[in-house]
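Q: What would this chain look like folded?
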Amino acid sequence: MLGLLDGVPPVRGRVGRPRRRPERLLADRGYDHDKYRRLVWRRGIKPVIARRHSEHGSGLGRERWVVERTFAWLHNRRRLLVRTDRRDDIHEGFLALACCQITWRRLEASLS
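A: My prediction, written as structure tokens:
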């Protein structure tokens, strides 16, 4: 998780000095440990992590559902779900093509 955070490119936003890191990190109960919270805070990111042994319905699912839904859309393309390509560049090309197709269909549906 921390390697992924360190690899995040600068975040675009308001005019001025660009943010180097996101403002918040959403995570599920699997990352509920003080060690992870401290390491994320040290990077200047507010951790929004569900507590273990707390009731479901904390509200985090509403924002995380967007990511899960997008993965489901990508996995509807069988070539991306069952990876048979050996080369990363070919897989990445099909991933970009699938994202374009999903975006096109969403735009087309919103306009009609």
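The first strand starts at residue 24 and ends at 27.
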